Amino acid sequence: MSLAETYSPEVVPEQRVAPKGQPFHLQPLKALRALGRLLKDKEDTAQVFEIMRALSGRSVPNGYARLISTPAGGSIAFRHQELATILSDHAFLSRLPEDSVGRAYLHFTTSENISAEGLIAESRKGIDDGIDSAHPFAWYGRRLRDVHDLWHVLSGYGRDGLGEACLVAFSYSQTKSLGFGLIGIAGALKLRREMPDVPAVRAVFEGFRNGRKAAWLPGEDYVRLLSEPLNAARARLNIARPAIYEGVPPALRNGRLGVQAAG
């Protein structure tokens, strides 16, 4: 038996040609056009990912560099597990303790009728940005995409319009991706215009503050985190209670914001 028959090539054949375009190049006009389409049609959730692609800049390579700068993060990157696979394993999640992060995530996704697979499907609409490629940056990008609904659970924000705007502000603090910032600001201003009595801007800014004060979530060991009691995890990660958001009656949190379905 030859070496070629024993070992796989180090470069995956279909990935020999890099994705077209400039993946770290900011495209603000493209993002603004996508934002306009999103605000006109809240069901057009592909525009959320279009905005994220246009404004991610160097947030992904910078985040990956931060991840591998620590021994724990380096181990996570070396193993490069796909979080979508773990978060889609309902049998695994259902065996976790009742008060765990994983069980809270399972309840959240089940009650909201959403899934990790659904989020992936939304992200694949539009252009091929190489998110599924065999590259460390692509893996890290998938990691950030796949934890979105888990961050809903950890942060305490719901999938209503205000909750999504708050979570993307929280996510901006964590990732420094300008797409999150743009969607958060646009969402807050739209809600304030539609419902002037709701403290939307203050709630979104609170989300930004909470994300900035919290531990760096992209570097977490999510398999261990899923088994941890939710309240203990929030305390360990220094994730503050979203007091302003919680103070808004649920019936007033939605408005006509166009970012909800992306979560």
If you had to describe this structure to a student in words, what would you say it looks like?
The model is unreliable at 16-21 and 256-263 (pLDDT under 50). Helix 2 packs antiparallel against helix 3 and helix 13 runs antiparallel to helix 14. The protein starts with a helix and ends in a 17-residue tail after the last helix. It has 263 residues and is an all-alpha fold. The chain is built from 17 helices and no strands. The radius of gyration is 19 Å and the shape is globular. The chain has one domain (45-262). Helix content is 60%, strand content 0%.
Low-pLDDT segments, ≥5 res: 16-21, 256-263
Silhouette: globular
Classify the beta-strand content into a percent band.
under 5%
What kind of assembly state do the chains in view correspond to?
A: single chain
- What profile does the largest beta sheet have? none
**SS element count, helices:** 17
Rg (C-alpha, Å): 19 Å
Reading the helices and strands in chain order gives HHHHHHHHHHHHHHHHH
Amount of helix: 55-70%
Q: Compute the number of strand runs.
A: 0
| Class inferred from helices and paired strands | mainly alpha
Work out the count of structural domains: 1
Mean pLDDT: 87
User: What is the CA–CA distance across the termini?
Assistant: 49 Å
Q: Would you summarize the structure shown here?
A:
This protein has helices at 3-6, 28-40, 46-55, 59-67, 71-79, 83-87, 90-94, 101-112, 116-123, 136-146, 148-155, 161-175, 178-194, 200-213, 222-227, 230-236, 243-246. The chain is mainly alpha-helical and 263 residues long.
